[in-house]
Amino acid sequence: MKTSFILLFFLWPLLNFGQIETVSKKDSTKIWDLLKYDTKNIAKSVGHSLTQPLRWKGDDFAKLGILIGGTAALTTLDNTARDFFVNQQEDFPKVVRDFGWYFGSPQNYFMINAGLYSLGLFTKNEKIRKTSVLIISSSITSGLLQTFLKTAVGRARPGPGIDNYDFRPFSSKGAYHSFPSGHTVLAVTMAHSIAKQFKNTWVKIGIYTIGAIPPISRLIDDAHWITDVAFSTAMSILVVDSIDKYLFKEKAYKYPHKEKTISWNISFAPNQIGFIGTF
């Protein structure tokens, strides 16, 4: 029941989007051919994104340095942020916390993806198919990066007497798999992929608000440090943007590419580190 509620609640904008953007002429392409085509694009997108560092130039390495440096600097606020979010546990609605946990859980997340792609496939709606391909490709890429980093970094999860600089690289214990946040990676990947399909600023804000629930819930549940969530958010957005740009460049899907209505930048100022979206 909770999974069905999440599926309907989060995909409602896309369901309407699919109804509004219906194909005007009958598509005679077989569903099996569409499935093979989309699978091919998923594989190509994942391969492109994972090998993208081989094509990086100076600016790209500079952005990576800023991301790593900003994350390291933000660790100075880990304990302060932890105290703040943990103190909200009693006042934060349990239904929202449950929504955050269920939506960010892999099994529910992939059920939502399956539902979305099936909708686009069987209705032969190219825009919904493209959105789902973007989500799946980005999720695979981010998921692989997140899985590797969790083990390689080996950061301790918050807990009594636990220091935010406690690391045990390549530990097999879940207690040392805090960085980055898997719930955040999945939620932000889907939210950003869907929000990119809309021009309306308020629709975007609504979608990003829903996508922010799992990361916030994980902080309130004392399951992650603020830097785990911040890094995961930045990584997910960068991966989605990279794959979206690739699909457009390859002309994998024929619908007109919307003008970019939001840009993301890492901002530094005295006592402030932010990942800012400009509409």
From the structure above, extract its key features.
Phosphatase PAP2 family protein; 5% strand; PAP2/HPO_sf; mainly alpha; 279 residues; two-stranded antiparallel ribbon; 2 strands; PAP2/HPO
Account of the protein in words:
With 279 residues, the protein is mainly alpha-helical. It has one domain (39-278). Helices cover 65% and strands 5% of the residues. It has ten helices and two strands, in the order ααααααααααββ. The chain has helices spanning 2-20, 31-51, 58-74, 78-86, 94-104, 106-122, 126-153, 182-195, 201-220, 226-249; strands at 263-269, 272-278. It has a two-stranded antiparallel sheet. It is globular and about 65 Å long.
Helical residues, percent: 55-70%
Outline the low-pLDDT stretches: 1-8, 18-25
| Apparent shape | globular
SSE order, one letter for each helix or strand: HHHHHHHHHHEE
Widest sheet, order of strands: 1-2
- From the N-terminal CA to the C-terminal CA, the straight-line distance is 35 Å
The assigned structural class equals mainly alpha
Number of strands: 2
**Rg measurement, Å:** 19 Å
Mean pLDDT across all amino acids? 84
What's the main sheet like?
2 strands, antiparallel
InterPro entries: PAP2/HPO (IPR000326), PAP2/HPO_sf (IPR036938)
Protein name: Phosphatase PAP2 family protein
